[in-house]
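Figure 3 (text version): structure tokens given as input.
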């Protein structure tokens, strides 16, 4: 009896150890796995960590977002460099960040995208209805649903950029929401786009950060 009892005890202990090890492995895997949803301070690889997180929440009307895929800054920089090397007047670029709210549809999704603009795009003052020119960059345009920012980059990463700078257009669309159209939220659209544009300029080693200040000028043109 003693030997049978001992055998059962060892079997029980062995099963517990196996289950414990499996449970630990599962727990370890769970803790290592990334959460599918994040707050505004963590979305877009932490681009908006700090005070800007509140601005993102204000303009989108959301506080929880799908985690964005990593490595998009590198893809944006590569697309812009290829555009400059192509010798074309413009290039499509790439998406930097998608602000997809938890439980939202495609129309609720915000987006930050960068491309190479054609020279004639700056100075074209035909704006969508309700949009206004601001003073930031070569040209900036702000409306109730987003913002556009044009700037130029001279960088050692791009041969010939001293003579022909890379022309970069950043665009931000906040997605559909019920937030009112106020000056504060319009300014926030441009603040968000400025932060992303400054990060792109630094990624590309643009001389003098492509003329973008650390803090954006939020004055509309007279």
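Below: residues designed for each position.
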């Amino acid at each position: 009896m003693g030997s049978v009892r001992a055998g059962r005890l060892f079997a029980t202990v062995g099963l517990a150890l196996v289950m414990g090890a499996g449970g630990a492995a599962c727990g370890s895997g769970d803790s290592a796995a990334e959460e599918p949803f994040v707050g505004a301070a963590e979305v877009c690889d932490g681009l908006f960590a700090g005070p800007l997180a509140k601005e993102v929440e204000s303009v989108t009307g959301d506080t929880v977002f799908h985690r964005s895929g990593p490595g998009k800054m590198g893809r944006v920089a590569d697309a812009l460099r290829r555009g400059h090397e192509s010798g074309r007047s413009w290039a499509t670029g790439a998406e930097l960040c998608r602000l997809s709210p938890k439980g939202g549809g495609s129309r609720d999704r915000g987006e930050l995208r960068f491309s190479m603009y054609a020279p004639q795009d700056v100075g074209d003052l035909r704006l969508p209805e309700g949009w206004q020119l601001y003073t930031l960059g070569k040209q900036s345009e702000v409306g109730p649903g987003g913002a556009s920012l044009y700037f130029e980059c001279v960088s050692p990463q791009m041969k010939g950029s001293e003579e022909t700078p890379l022309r970069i257009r950043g665009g931000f669309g906040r997605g559909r929401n019920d937030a009112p159209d106020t000056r504060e939220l319009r300014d926030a659209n441009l603040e968000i786009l400025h932060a992303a544009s400054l990060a792109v300029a630094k990624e590309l080693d643009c001389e003098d950060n492509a003329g973008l200040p650390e803090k954006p000028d939020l004055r509309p043109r007279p």
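The CA atoms of residues 42 and 49 lie 6 Å apart.
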